[in-house]
Amino acid sequence: MGVIRCKGTDLLVWRRELIRRGGRAVDLDWLLSMAADCSWGDLQKLRICPDVEIELSAPLHDLTDLWTRHCDQHIPLQHLVGLCPWRDFELEVSSDALIPRQETELLIDFALQCLPEDACHLEGIWADLGTGSGALAVALARVLPHWQGHAVDSSASALALAERNLMALAGNSGWQLHRGSWWEPLKPWWGQFGLVLSNPPYIPTAVMDELEPVVKDHEPHLALCGGGDGLDCCRQIIRDARKALAPGGWILLEHHHDQSAMVLELLTDAGLERPEARYDLQGIPRFALAQRACQSITSDLSMEER
Ligand SMILES: C[S@@+](CC[C@H](N)C(=O)[O-])C[C@H]1O[C@@H](n2cnc3c(N)ncnc32)[C@H](O)[C@@H]1O
User: Fold this and answer.
1) For the whole model, what pTM was predicted?
2) What's the CA gap between 156 and 178, in Å, rounded?
């Protein structure tokens, strides 16, 4: 599609009309930016000088179609566009995996704060449990280029999507994908993980029905539902974390807004050290981290035998 020229006043009138029909202005601006290359900055300039012409990479009637499908059928805009910006890259997204959320970006920052400052020059092994689109795995592969990475998911279609994203954004070496449940396919590397991230399904079953249609009708149930209290997956992951982590290795998890105390307790009960909550940008304790003690594997195991 070539460049389409449009009068600024026409674009602003079109925008007002679509918002009047329904949906959120912030989402329409996201669509303009992702599907027509009209940035938030371009829109601000138009408000000051509406008479200028603006260049779009898609015609307004195509955008109207997408917006109508979003509003009428509650299809996520990311699915309609097929892309989602996340940290410093754009991921392919589809109904095969969760659309990566902005708050999850913070897990990478918290992980890097746990590691030595020169971690990007060191070697190590990381894992992303429940990789979905591969968002966390792509980010880890990019910031820790000398580490060996392992991304796990039980969904074959999510793994196919993660593979395309990793190939496109992180090169074709330094990472492996595994189909299976949490730590299970990673047994050969147990005791060696220096860093493990997971954003497991954590929505309590009873809350699933309350989710917006844009989420519950279009994102995989397997990526959302965490069982009765939402902690089934967290429990399974944390149960084997001490055995799977290397001495001194870190695990960081995302969880529901009201699960912080319970997840920290699970981490402590599993024998991990320095359990701590981390907060999202709204001040909600949405992440938990902990470390395996820095002693050697043999002394750790012999402690268990005693
Ligand atoms: C909340 S999504 C997170 C996806 C991605 N990491 C992100 O942050 O956008 C949870 C992922 O866990 C996967 N999953 C669910 N049960 C699993 C299991 N038993 N073992 C491995 N992965 C599982 C789902 O398929 C889904 O991709």
Assistant:
1) 0.94
2) 9
Angstrom CA distances, 211 to 25, 218, 287, stand at 21, 11, 21
Cα of 107 from ligand 1 centre, angstroms: 15
- Nearest atom in ligand 1 to the alpha carbon of residue 158 is 27
Alpha helices in the chain (DSSP H): 8-21, 25-36, 40-48, 60-73, 77-81, 105-114, 135-143, 156-170, 205-208, 213-216, 221-224, 232-239, 241-244, 260-269, 297-305
Residue 201, ligand 1, Cβ within 6 A:
yes
Res. 133: pLDDT tops 70: yes
For residues 87 and 108, is the Cβ–Cβ distance under 8 A?
yes
Whether 198 lines ligand 1, by a CB cut-off of 6 Å, is: no
For ligand 1, is residue 131 a contact (CB within 6 Å)? yes
Question: How far apart are alpha carbons 31 and 47 in whole angstroms?
Answer: 18
Confidence of residue 2 (pLDDT cuts 50, 70, 90): confident
Q: Is the pLDDT of residue 8 over 90?
A: yes
Per-residue pLDDT at 303 exceeds 80: no
Residue owning the nearest CA to atom 27 of ligand 1: 132
Mutation to probe ligand 1, out of 153, 182, 199 (largest number of atoms < 8 A from CB): 153
Compute, in degrees rounded to 10, the torsion defined by CA atoms 143, 144, 150, 156: 20
Q: Check pocket membership of 181 for ligand 1, CB cut-off 6 A.
A: yes
For 13, 34, 40, 107, the CA distances from 9, given in Å and listed in that order, are: 6, 21, 16, 42
Q: Dump pLDDT digits (tens) for 290-301.
A: 999 997 545 444
